[in-house]
Design goal:
two-stranded antiparallel ribbon, 4-stranded antiparallel beta sheet, disordered N terminus, alpha+beta, 90 residues
């Protein structure tokens, strides 16, 4: 990622916030080769980061969506593993 503030894995705070929104079930993704991310129904302001997260395999869309439609975004196993150590202690 390109921002100067990063976590140990090299992701910006913004990218991590996007992953958290996906984990919380607040995000949708378009079925596309360059998937756009929507959080709380609004388009994400940093679609470049959304594209990188999708291409890196951290977020994904369910199979079978219609091209161009918005579907619930899901974290991949890799995305879940990346967020696990950053989750607040219960």
């Amino acid at each position: 990622m390109t921002e100067t503030t990063r976590d140990p894995e090299g992701l910006s705070y913004r990218a991590l916030a996007m992953l958290r929104a996906v984990a919380q079930g607040r995000a949708e993704i378009t079925v596309s080769l360059e998937p756009d991310l929507y959080v709380d129904g609004l388009p994400c302001s940093d679609q470049s980061t959304a594209h990188r997260l999708a291409h890196a395999g951290l977020i994904r869309m369910p199979a079978g969506g219609v091209r161009g439609s918005r579907v619930p975004a899901r974290l991949s196993e890799t995305g879940q593993d990346l967020l696990a150590p950053l989750a607040p202690a219960a």
